[in-house]
Amino acid sequence: MHTVVERELELGLVLSPERSVPVPARLTYRTDDPYAVHVTFHIGSPTPVRWTFARELLVEGVFRTCGDGDVRVWPTKSGGRSLVCVELDSPDGRALLEAPAAAVSAWLERTLRVVPPGSEQGHLGLDKGLSDLLAMAPTDDLLPGVPRPADETPEPGA
């Protein structure tokens, strides 16, 4: 069974230093995808915009500037409010979003309680997947006539 940790919040899409517009968003964390966070932006189009990136990037970005490439995250203050800035870069354009730091931090803390840092691999189900795969492997009696590999141990007296 997998756990999902979600949080609805309003982000600010920064249009200029003086102007931003509200964008409803949902933060989602799933234990079956333990390294990632998923952000869904509801922008009034028939299909929401979805971004997925490393949870570790968001955790670090609450405290210091981090990220390279398509996603960058950093903390800031504006008008006495603590914010987390998220810059998303794609072939379609660039977006700078501001989120309330307290809301993001509280949500992240919930995800970290569900899957503590360093324990993500245990939630991937690799052991079960490998067991299922090996259970499907053919046994010797299912492949009559197929020669077995030669035994590496020499025969007595050889």
Description:
The protein is α+β, with helices and mostly antiparallel strands and 158 residues long. It has three helices and seven strands, in the order ββββαβββαα. The protein has helices at residues 55-61, 101-114, 126-135; strands spanning 4-16, 19-30, 36-41, 49-54, 71-78, 81-90, 93-100. Strands 4-3-2-1-7-6-5 form a seven-stranded antiparallel beta sheet, with helices on both faces. The longest helix is centred in the C-terminal third of the chain and has 14 residues, at 101-114. The chain is elongated. The mean pLDDT is 85.
Keywords:
158 residues, seven-stranded antiparallel sheet, 3 helices, elongated
Short note summarizing the structure:
By secondary structure, the protein is α+β, with helices and mostly antiparallel strands. It has helices spanning 55-61, 101-114, 126-135; strands at 4-16, 19-30, 36-41, 49-54, 71-78, 81-90, 93-100. The protein has three helices and seven strands, in the order ββββαβββαα.
As a percent range, the share of helical residues equals: 10-25%
Which structural category do the helix and sheet elements fall into? alpha+beta
Question: Please, how many helices?
Answer: 3
**What is the general shape?**
elongated
Strand adjacency order, main sheet: 4-3-2-1-7-6-5
Biggest sheet architecture: 7 strands, antiparallel
What is the alpha-carbon Rg in Å? 24 Å
In terms of quaternary structure, what is this?
single chain
Report the count of strand segments: 7
Helix-strand string: EEEEHEEEHH
DSSP strand content? 35-45%
Terminus-to-terminus distance: 56 Å
What's the overall average pLDDT, rounded?
Answer: 85
Low-confidence stretches: none
